[in-house]
Records
---
Amino acid sequence: MVLLRSFEAALLRQPKPGFQLLSRGEEAIAVGICAALQRKDPFLCSGRSIGPALARGVPPGGLLAELIGKDGGPNRGRAGRAHVSMPSVGLFGAHGVVGGNLTVAAGVALAQQQLGTGAVALCLFGDGACGSGTLHETLNIAALWRLPLVLACDNNGYAVSTAVRDAIAAPRLTDLAAPFGIPASAVDGTDVDAVAAAVGEAVEGARAGRGPWFLELQCARMAPHSTLTREERPPAEVEELRGHDPITLYEKRLRAEGILSDALWAGLMAEVDAEVAEAERFALAAVWPDPEAAMLDV
Ligand SMILES: Cc1ncc(C[n+]2csc(CCOP(=O)(O)OP(=O)(O)O)c2C)c(N)n1
Ligand SMILES: [Mg+2]
């Protein structure tokens, strides 16, 4: 989680950081999910992909290069955060279209079922996708065919500046899974252990053939919607969100439990600083893509 936070700070230091959707405040979701997945489990995420991509194992240097448009990224700088993918580490893509990853994830899950890989697909999408037809189509077909699919909704309360309560008629997002008979649970998405436990239960249930599961991961976005969006939420509300910082909460808990000492914390910070510095060196040294190659693989 500290690596994710520090990586994003390094990204913002770049001369042209680009149009980015940061994972600040949502690190426990990315890390908790990826801790519960096996390497063979395909993971799809939304355009808020930086934390999820790092947590899944995309090398920080390559990801930074990708985000600033360098040839050294896993997609040679042509995908950016909206479409970054790296199947070799199990990242079956970020998806820039809200709700667009859900039907793709159903297909990926169907492939696992038909090929008998024993893998479970996990699709991470935002609350903004909950009003989208693709969620309801995916819930239906996943339930009907008992697909090995976990649908994990990152509920940070907003789609840009539209609050969930102004966009979704269901009182609780977990209600959306009920008509299809899909088990659903709401989880504190600022608690990395709670996320890992809930995702682990859902993934292992799907792996055992019990079909899909819907998870609502409740969290707080600690930055404006994007690096190019001004903060539109009420100042008092934004101030209150500081109390939901998943890193601070976990640090406090680990200290209280006697697991984390000052020395261990300092060591972790030094490790992360070195990893991020190395990522910056890699990304800065990477070459720009050849303009001739712009339309390749499109
Ligand atoms: C179909 C579609 N409509 C609009 C957009 C523009 N857009 C990008 S992100 C976003 C908000 C998404 O909200 P949510 O799903 O809650 O994810 P969050 O940004 O909160 O992580 C919107 C409307 C888009 N990418 N795709
Ligand atoms: Mg949202």
---
Amino acid sequence: MTTRKTTARKPLPKKCPDCKGTGEITETVRVGSARKPRETADRQAALCLTCFGTGDAPTD
Ligand SMILES: [Zn+2]
């Protein structure tokens, strides 16, 4: 019988709620005037400003 080593896992840091731990968010691309913005189907990846791309939930 082989003894399986259990990998010691570090407790994961809390994931950023905004980007869900990815560090990236997708923004809706808007076109048109500021008075009448129109959302397009396009999404662009952007750096999550909540965690600054780390994916970790900010601590206070
Ligand atoms: Zn984030």
